[in-house]
Amino acid sequence: MSGGLIAALVVVGVLVLLIGYVWVTYNSLVTLRVRVDEAWSDITVQLKRRADLIPTIVDTVKGYAAHEKSVFEDVTRARAETISAEGPVEASEAENHMQQALKSIFAVAEAYPQLQASQNFLQLQSELVDTENKIQASRRFYNGGVREYNTKIQVFPNTLFARPMGFTERVFFEVEDIASISEPPRIQF
């Protein structure tokens, strides 16, 4: 074999390996991006589920504490913010406001023993706790996917071609006051 043929085979071999590497990496980045999108969708489903519970909770509490108008307005505003949030940054801000509003409404509810004994209210509490747990689980899954996706984009040599091929980092779903969501709102009386 001549030296030129060996050099050509080496170049072809390196090109095949490089193309194979880019192909596999591209496909894994697409898979991770889809997984992150799916996880975000799970979060939005749970936030919507909670938002759907809020009017019923507000109406139930209103029946016992109609004079607490500002609390109900805060909850309604936080709910609207949650529903209209687009993306993790806006959703994180809305989540902070929602947690504060929920704390306020349940603080009002504590003052009414008849409300606390209401079967309807107890059922709503149970559904809300379940939803809050699902939101936390969805948030952890989403943030794990974002971490894996962002890492894959940023490591060398992926960083050389990931961004030019349209892969950009995603934002974590972070909450300003982490203590406010470290556990579901205390609504057990």
Short structural description:
This protein has 189 residues and is mainly alpha-helical. It is built from seven helices and no strands.
- Major sheet attributes: none
CATH 4th-level superfamily: LemA-like domain
The low-pLDDT segments are 181-189
Q: What is the top-level CATH class? A: Mainly Alpha
Number of distinct beta strands: 0
Total helical elements:
7
Here the CATH topology equals de novo design (two linked rop proteins)
Shape annotation: rod-shaped
Mean pLDDT: 86
Oligomer: single chain
Could you tell me the radius of gyration in angstroms? 25 Å
Strand percent estimate: under 5%
Secondary structure: helix percent:
over 70%
Q: Which H/E pattern describes the elements?
A: HHHHHHH
The end-to-end distance, rounded to whole angstroms, is 86 Å
Number of self-contained structural domains: 1
Tell me the structural class: mainly alpha
| CATH-defined architecture | Up-down Bundle
What's the topology here?
Elements: H1 3-62, H2 69-84, H3 87-109, H4 113-117, H5 119-154, H6 158-161, H7 178-181
Helix pairs in contact: 1-2, 1-5, 2-3
